[in-house]
Structure formats: C-alpha cells, structure tokens
Amino acid sequence: MPRLVKLSLMYAVTAEPVELELAVTGPPARIAGLALDNGFDGVEVSIDPQAVDKALQAGAELRRAGLEVSAVSTGLMYTLRGLSLSHPDSHERTRALEAFETMMGAAAKLESSIIVLGLARGRCVGSCRSSLERLKGSLEAIDRKAGELGLKVALEPINWYETDLLNTFKDAAELARERENVGLLYDVFHALLTEGDPYKTLLEYSSMVVHVHVADSNRGPPGSGIIEWERLGEILARIGYRGYATLEARRSSVPGGDEELVRRAGKVLRAALP
Ligand code: LER
Ligand code: MN
C-alpha cells in the first residue's frame, strides 16, 4: 500500500564546500544512495543562491535516480549570504526578494510544489514590529509569484534561539491567513520549543500545514529523544496529511555519520508514520 506521508532528506547545495549541521551535502549519486537505501522517497533541496544552477543539475540527477524534490529550502540565503526578506534597507530587501524568487523558479523547474520560508525572514532589526511589517511586504510579492508558479509557501515558526522574528504558530498563522498561497511548515522540533505541546499544535493548525520537518527533541534522529513518533503518526493520519516529512536532524548527533543518522531515522519514521 502506498505511504500517506512520504519521507525526504534535507540536502544542501552550496557554491563552495560547507559543513552544515542540519543537511547532508555531496555528490547527488551519494545522496541518492543514502535516500533510496533507507526508504526515503525524496529530497528537500536547500539552495545557496550562489549555486542555483548547480542545485538544478543536482535536483535533475536525483529525479532521474527516482527521487522527488519534496521542497526547496531557502534559509542558506540568510545564513550563508546575509540576504534577509525583512532587511531595513530597501535595496538589500529587493536583493533578498530577487534571490528568493529565483529559488521559487528553481522549485517550479524541479516540479516541487513547496517553497520553504524559514530563516530567510531574517531577524528583528530596530523594532520587531517594523521588521514584521517589512517581512509582510516581501510576503505579498512572494505570495503573488507563488500563485503564478503554482507553489505553496511553507512559512516556518522557528524557535527563539535561532531568530527573534516570528516564532509562534499563532503569529505565523496570522500572516499566512492573509495570503492565498501561504501555509505553515510544522517542524516538530520548533513546535516542541515554542508551543510546549507539539501534538496539540499539529491538531490545532492541521488545516494550514503544507509541509513537515522532523527531528527529535534533541534535534537528533527520531527515536533519540522524547518525541512520541507513533502518536505523531496517528495525528498525521487523522488530519489526512498527504505531504512530505523531511528529516532535518543534527549530523553530529550520531557517531556513525550521515549513513547511521539516515538509517536510524528511516527505520523509526517508516514504522511510526502512516
Ligand atoms: C532551522 O532551524 C530550520 O528549521 C529550517 O527549516 C529553517 O530554514
Ligand atoms: Mn525546519
């Protein structure tokens, strides 16, 4: 029987080699093996805006290997290149918006329907209120473009240690409700931190969830912390979630490297998710 929730691996493509904690990197052939050997159906491609062509080539190679591109992730534009969708300087904000829109184009070319808006939002500069207003302006343009390309924007509530702009599901949902093509990204790790009860949160916002990220409470692979994966699986089945769950776990949390991380995660997720 086909799976209701498909699994993908977070895979980053960067212009120069960078060690990243939450994404696997390297040649597409290695990533394809890692994914297919462990029951994963796709990859979420996290794109460095300076490596869009490289990411398109890698994505195409992974698709030829039988994997889907579940989503395109955009956080590297901020963490590697300092491009923020809420930047106080309008010229810088336009540059960020252009980079984001280029990655939306890449998502469409790779036949993914999801573009992730996580850390690309930036942080509060000046007041959080003015930063949020600037982010809303960028989101208006992004929403329009998403409509043209047939994409859904997955707006991700992110915990306070990583950004001070837009942390809770309540605040993210308020923004998403104003926009036709914007939904929520349910990252169970962030939900645990910002909401306390990740199960109740998933039920409460179920109608708005367009994409899912998974890691355990310690951001290690599922099974290494206190998240109740079977309970989460039951809720995903009950709410009728039919999208992807992307593994976004700390690579250094497992001594055996990427292979061991993905193997452990695949085993637990395949057993627990519908
Ligand atoms: C970062 O913590 C995260 O969860 C990413 O998905 C944000 O882009
Ligand atoms: Mn995430």
Mean pLDDT: 98
> Quaternary status of these chains?
single chain
Distance between the termini: 10 Å
Evaluate the radius of gyration.
17 Å
Assign the CATH architecture. Alpha-Beta Barrel
The hetero molecules present are: L-Erythrulose, manganese (II) ion
**Mind describing the biggest β-sheet?**
8 strands, parallel
So, the CATH homologous superfamily?
Divalent-metal-dependent TIM barrel enzymes
- The total of helices stands at 10
Q: Spans with pLDDT under 50 lasting ≥5 residues?
A: none
CATH class: Alpha Beta
How many strand segments? Answer: 8
- SS content category: alpha/beta
Number of domains: 1
Overall geometry comes to globular
Q: What report would you give on this structure?
A:
Helix 6 links the parallel strand 5 and strand 6. This protein is α/β, with parallel strands linked by helices and 274 residues long. The model has no long low-confidence stretch (mean pLDDT 98). It has one domain: TIM Barrel (Alpha-Beta Barrel). 49% of the residues are buried. It has an eight-stranded parallel β-sheet with strand order 3-2-1-8-7-6-5-4. It is 44% helix and 16% strand. The longest helix has 22 residues. Helix 1 packs across helix 2, helix 4 runs parallel beside helix 5 and helix 9 packs across helix 10.
